[in-house]
Design goal:
The complex is a heterodimer.
Chain A lengths: L1 H16 L4 E15 L4 E15 L12 E13 L4 E11 L6 E14 L2 E14 L5 E13 L9 E15 L2 E17 L2 E13 L3 E15 L1
Chain B lengths: L1 H17 L4 E6 L6 H10 L7 E7 L2 E10 L2 E7 L5 E8 L6 H14 L2 E13 L4 H6 L6 E12 L4 E8 L5 E7 L5 H4 L1
Antiparallel strand pairs in B: 1-2, 2-3, 3-4, 4-5, 5-6, 6-7, 7-8, 8-9
Classes of the chains: A mainly beta, B alpha+beta.
Chain lengths: ~230, ~190
Amino acid sequence: MRVILIIIYSALIFNLQAQDRAYHSGFAPEFTINKKISKKVSLTTKVESIHYYYSNEDRIGYLTPWNHKGIDFQFFGNYKLSPFYRISLGYQLSYNPDGKPSNRLIEQLSYSGKLGSMKLGHRVRADQTFYSSGPAKFRFRYRFSLQIPLQGSSVDVGEFFLITSDELILTAKSGGSSIENRALFQVGYKPFEKIDIQVGFDYRAEGANRIEESESLMKIALIFDL
Amino acid sequence: MRIIFLTILAILSFSISAQTKMEKEYRVKQDKVPENAQKWIIQNFPEAKKVKWYQEISNGKTTFEAKLQWNKTPYSVEFDSVGTIEDVEMTIDFEEIELTTRKTIEQYFLGNYKKHKVLKVQKQFTGNLSQFRQYLENPNQTGITTNYEVEFQGITPESNELYEALFNQSGQLIQRKTIKTEANINLDF
């Protein structure tokens, strides 16, 4: 099962890279802290930065320093509805190479449950992005994810695990709509009870009627759940 | 800036590691399992083909667990550190519990929760388990105690939690534990 997933994912990336369309690859470190405030309320902060190191379009030149594509700062308030469901309201501040920040509001409903020894998650999210110039962007997203323990039937301290997810994003803005798919495959390690480190690949493909732009990102995530 | 970040990370890591529970469960190969335990499985479940072995270390205590399927039913068999059988758990549907016992358990749910949902039921066997297979074929054999471990979601006007409850053979509650359900940050964000 695990080997099949890796093969499918590798084949997907190779196949999509080879085709004639805008393609970028890079590195995306992210850092997340979650803090439980009460039995039902928690706060989450996430910082994600994207750096391009290859682009078949002329995108590298202006991406400085560190070929920076952008950095996002996210803040969420989360409320536990039941043992399985949570709602979250969030705000994202993004800085792009053009120096003009954008603001995003995020609403999210998430589910997490168990499937044998695996944890599975469903996430439905809506977001609205407002730019300092230009029309606003509205997106509706659904993500399915799995956490698979690699040693034993649950992830304990000192053990490795896999995280894989697939997300479909529908975007609407004045001038048209588009669809995006994001596939993520990461290997995680739990050095301490409340810390996870995850390394892997995030493949994103976007287009209206066909894939017009895609990117492969090597992701490194550090997650603190306090 | 880098030094400040590293210092914060080191402090956080130290305070977090100090709170770490010493509980670990991992897959082990059959040759790492005490011979007594292996023999018990062969004697009682000779047809079981894929037996998965796990070792659990909790508060310094080591136990071994075998997970297997027999007659399309999942079994979980727990042994102590030297391979002495401790208990056997068999996953069943709630409807498979004997009618009068089931009615008593349902009364408990109706009396204590506004709404409930049974998520998993395990029939638990303890006592003289040396001839467990014969017991399955002839349940009148004495010396084995049967309990039911029921995982359920219980909703009251004040709470909505997951619980693990242990009921005895007649359906009376022996103990109830709240199952900790934390958000999975890496699945949610």
